Amino acid sequence: MELNITTLAERPELQGRMWQMKDLWPEFTLHDPVGWGCMARIVTELPEYVLVATDAEGEVVARAFSVPFQLQAEGRGALPARGWDQVMLWAFSDLRHGHTPDTVSAIEVCVDTGALGRGLSGRMLAAMRDNAKRLGFTEVVAPVRPNGKHLEAAASIDEYAFRTREADGLPHDPWLRVHVRAGGTIERVAPASMTISGSLEEWRAWTGLPFDTDGPVEVAGALVPVRCEASRGYAVYVEPNVWVRHRL
């Protein structure tokens, strides 16, 4: 498939169409407060870290977000247990305080549902790596949302993250496999990468499920069960991701 991949800084007129892409994010994931507050800021404040892909007809078919941050700052050093949420907070804290970043973190690679199955996610990951290198960085880290884990919500993320195929030794999970094929190394689990809490009414609206009993609730698209506290009127989802490190 013919692709033209550019940064949003180069083609700001694509911003509207980029947001209109049809994606596979489950509804409840759109209510993570950190993501809600930071994703739009990446577009407006860090457009050189946003990649947009258009096809031969000029239609937007994929996007990729990343952020620069200072991993080696005092009190940091290790990839955080709070993964996706934490790295965005670090990135905008560093930007506000004028701290020089030393690492780029992937935030999202998203392909329009009409263009799935054509290898675009791998091409966008490669473009993200190339863009980070062009900007002077030597590594990209990624809090990966394993796209097959939702089929095994009750499975241990620690086991799933490092599960490999017997035939070739590559990761069992398709999205982790793309990262490893691109040169990435699976490092560790981020057990609390995204945290979403809401009232029972909100969770019912997001999922169509009753949320009327205390205990774990398996939700379509969730990597682990949602914890329902029906007697207290709320439910909480804590999503684990998998840290992958790419040396450039």
Structure description:
It is a single chain. With 248 residues, the chain is an alpha+beta fold. The protein has seven helices and nine strands. It has helices at residues 15-19, 33-45, 83-97, 120-134, 157-161, 174-181, 200-207; strands at 4-7, 50-54, 60-69, 103-111, 139-144, 185-199, 215-217, 226-229, 234-247. Strands 1, 2, 3, 4, 5, 6, 7, 8 and 9 form a nine-stranded mixed β-sheet that branches. It starts with a strand and ends with a strand. The mean pLDDT is 98.
Largest sheet: 9 strands, mixed
Quaternary class: single chain
Strand runs, count = 9
Structural class: alpha+beta
Assign an overall shape: globular
Low-pLDDT residue intervals, each spanning 5 or more residues: none
Strand content: 25-35%
Mean pLDDT rating: 98
The Rg value, from CA coordinates, equals 18 Å
How many distinct helices? 7
Query: What proportion of the residues is helical, as a percent range?
Result: 25-40%
SSE string, helices as H and strands as E = EHHEEHEHEHHEHEEE
List strands and helices in order, with pairings.
Elements: E1 4-7, H1 15-19, H2 33-45, E2 50-54, E3 60-69, H3 83-97, E4 103-111, H4 120-134, E5 139-144, H5 157-161, H6 174-181, E6 185-199, H7 200-207, E7 215-217, E8 226-229, E9 234-247
Parallel strand pairs: 4-5
Antiparallel strand pairs: 1-2, 2-3, 3-4, 5-9, 6-9, 7-8, 8-9
Short description:
The protein is an alpha+beta fold. The protein has helices at about 15-20, 35-45, 85-95, 120-135, 155-160, 175-180, 200-205, and strands at about 5, 50-55, 60-70, 105-110, 140-145, 185-200, 215, 225-230, 235-245. It contains seven helices and nine strands; from the N terminus they run βααββαβαβααβαβββ.
